[in-house]
Amino acid sequence: MNNKELIEKWYNQMWNKWNTDILHEILDDEITFRGSLGIEKKGYEGLKNYMNFIKSAFPDFHNSIEQIITEGNYSFAKLKYTGTHKGKIFEIAPTNKRIEYYGAAVFTIENKKIKDVWVLGDIYGLIKQLE
Fold first, then answer.
1. pLDDT band at residue 21 using 50, 70 and 90 as cut-offs
2. What pLDDT is stored for residue 50 in this prediction?
3. What Cα–Cα distance (Å) separates residue 62 from each residue in 26, 42, 99?
4. Residue 43 forms beta bridges with which residues?
């Protein structure tokens, strides 16, 4: 699986379907992850906890890949995120509002697995939609 295919599987299979069964297939055992909310997690369990946190706030959270650029072991993905605010986040009670914001992620790939992910998202834009 090449870098692009790994990233597509990360978003389309793992995140968009909340499928943690594929973690061992696409991720390094010592995956490090920094989400757009500024939360850092390590390993499979840490990532699952982050995913559950996002799912509790936006059960229909969806990642749309707009672009993937790869150079060597590094890949960059430009993304659009959508969902419905159904759970507390940023100390904001559920509003049932539809949200849409943009972000980008930098991936480090080693031995055909995702080793590190750093996501930057327009959190200010997200919070403004929830207020």
1. very high
2. 94
3. 19, 22, 10
4. none
Say what the pLDDT of residue 89 is. 93
Backbone angles phi, psi at 47, to 5 degrees: -65, -40
Average pLDDT over residues 80-100: 96
**Residue 86 backbone phi and psi in degrees, to 5:** -115, -5
Give the residue carrying structure tokens 């559950």: 52
> Residue 116 corresponds to which tokens in the numbers above?
């590190």
- The SS3 call for residue 35 is coil
Q: Which residue has the tokens 């061992």?
A: 24
Distance (Å, rounded) from C-alpha 8 to C-alpha 79?
11
Mean pLDDT of the chain: 95
| This prediction's pTM | 0.91
Place of tokens 């500024």: 38
- Amino acid letter, residue 121: G
Q: Phi and psi (nearest 5°) for 102?
A: -115, 155
> What's the DSSP call for residue 92?
B
